[in-house]
Amino acid sequence: MRRALVLSLLLATACTARTSAPPTVSSVPDVTDATPSPTSPQVQPPVPPKPRWPLPGYLLIADRGNDRMLLVDSGKHILWRYPAPGQAPAMPFRFDDDTFFTPSHTAVISNQEDQQTIQVISFPGRRILWSYGHVNVAGSAPGFLHTPDDAYMLPNGTVSVADISNCRIVFIGRHHAITRQLGSLTTCFHGPPRSLDLPNGDTPMPDGGTLVTEIGGSWVDSIGPNGKLRWAVHAPVSYPSDAQWLGHGRILLTDYHVPGSVVEMTRSGHVVWRYGPSSGPGELRFPSLALMLPNGLVAVNDDARHRVVVIDPTTDKIVWQYGHTDVAGSSAGYLTRPDGMDFLAYQVAIDVPQVRVYLVGRLGSAAASG
Known about the structure:
There is one protein chain. The chain is mainly beta. The protein contains 3 helices and 24 strands. The chain starts with a helix and ends with a helix.
């Protein structure tokens, strides 16, 4: 999203740096990097305890400033991280801008925006399964990317990514060939699907279409699975970020700005809900992604305040957060410019054998540590 430039210009005034002794936050000691073997169908593994309010599952956070991913629960226990503490990753992993689970939930896909790469990493095993791009080399030739954002794995194994500075969305096959493209390398203006103006979002839609977010002009476009434009709407924000399809004609997105906001709107542009205090502890500064949780709460990356917050739309109150407001750090309970996230629902987690086994062990350690 070219966020590094925006942050460098505004972060000094947007964030108030403070130094204080880190409070004690419970965490779980990391375990082996090996993926647990699923148990046989005849012997089912134990079921992990149900999550506490407000997260009906587990939150995967791209902790961009610390070059890592964290999986946390409502109790703020760190259940999984990549890279493993004290271990260098097999491939450089810097500036991880986003992270999403693959459809099977046995891997995560992460794009490293300033490193110009995408990586697919096994979950919970931490093995690199697939990668695309050249480390620290931007380009537009086959095999190269320029500011990749929002990489997703689709059900058929294709990877989609917003290639921002190349003004396109590309779809990459298992064998690294680009199989489809929205936008063009030669034009960079709003004219979907042939031309896109700095696209920073390519959210998959349930029917196989793509919800495209364009920075230029603040557009959100629905492109069908056949590659044709279905509709486009101007979002009432200055810097739209990572639009998410809620169904029933509604869209959730953030305004990557100071003060920032979260907006739920219809495909016709009508604002259903907006959260955006202009000051105080509830103010957002460069929020980059908002996700609607199954219980109706909204999780938001509040990048420049170094936290992920959960907002109750019925009260417009922050009811939970991970990270310490305006304090960057890497200790347990701290984040530095978190820019992406995904949600792992409890039922999904226990339906995947190796994930279920892993969480039983991790949550058992969390309970023992208090």
